[in-house]
TrEMBL record:
Keyword hit for Transmembrane helix: yes
Region (Disordered) residue spans: 141-171
Positions of transmembrane segments: 40-60
Keyword annotations of the record: Membrane, Transmembrane, Transmembrane helix
InterPro entries referenced in this protein's UniProt entry, alphabetically: Extracell_DNA_Util/SecSys_Comp
Record protein name field: Fimbrial assembly protein (PilN)
Biased segments, Low complexity type: 143-159
Signal peptide positions (record): none
Length: 234
């Protein structure tokens, strides 16, 4: 069995309702409300900016105060150290004076030689029958001492070229008398072996009734310098 359903027939008594709305506020009120909202947004933005500026100023002030405190601490420490250094003023002054004295001694005694030792060796080298009557030394200016450059040789006090190229510190003159000329020749060889003495020459020989007078001349090498007062920086 089949049942047919027919759509309902619209009833003329049914009414359709429409949703209608209308803004009945005056335009002046609407405009006023918009201005109020804009002002609130602007004030909120300004407040945020002011808060950020205040926070930045506070951070900058804190950092500045911290740096000033560090500077004050450093200055205080420097003052304390300076006061502590005053306790050593006398020591520092003494060290400075000692350094000056050492420098002056190094300049004044640049040609310091142990003369007693050298003269003792010269006397000890004299053979039997030979006596020394005089020994003299002539020192050169320390500022002119040095080594020769290139292939040119340095002229020594004796007039002979230096074997090692170093300028002698001075010349040595020995006067004496001997019973034989053989003893004089042997003495020339002996003092030529003394450390620091070189280029030994027989400068003069004079025969006397009781013997022979002689004069020797030699160069003094820089190895004779004692360097006792030479500064550490030299």
């Amino acid at each position: 069995m089949t049942t047919a359903v027919s759509p309902p027939v619209p009833d003329g008594s049914t009414h359709r309702l429409l949703a209608l709305s209308a803004n009945l506020l005056p335009p002046e009120v609407v405009q006023q409300r918009r201005l109020v909202r804009i002002r609130l947004v602007v004030l909120a933005s300004l407040g945020t900016v002011i808060v950020l500026l205040a926070a930045g100023y506070a951070v900058a002030h804190w950092q500045s105060t911290r740096q000033e405190q560090k500077l004050a601490d450093a200055q205080t420490e420097a003052i304390v150290l300076h006061q502590q250094m005053r306790a050593y003023d006398e020591l520092v002054t003494a060290q400075t004076q000692t350094t000056k004295i050492d420098t002056q001694l190094a300049k004044l005694l640049a040609t310091d030689v142990q003369w007693a030792t050298l003269f003792g060796k010269l006397r000890a080298a004299a053979p039997r029958g030979l006596d020394l009557t005089g020994v003299s030394v002539a020192l050169t200016d320390p500022t002119t001492q040095g080594t020769s450059g290139g292939s040119s040789s340095t002229t020594t006090a004796s007039g002979l070229p230096s074997a090692d190229g170093k300028t002698p510190i001075g010349s040595l003159t020995i006067n004496g008398t001997s019973t034989t000329k053989t003893a004089i020749a042997g003495y020339v060889d002996s003092i030529g072996k003394v450390t620091g003495v070189g280029n030994v020459l027989l400068a003069g020989v004079t025969d006397q009734d009781d013997g022979t007078d002689f004069t020797l001349r030699a160069d003094l090498a820089p190895t004779l310098l004692s360097h006792h007062y030479t500064s550490a920086s030299d």
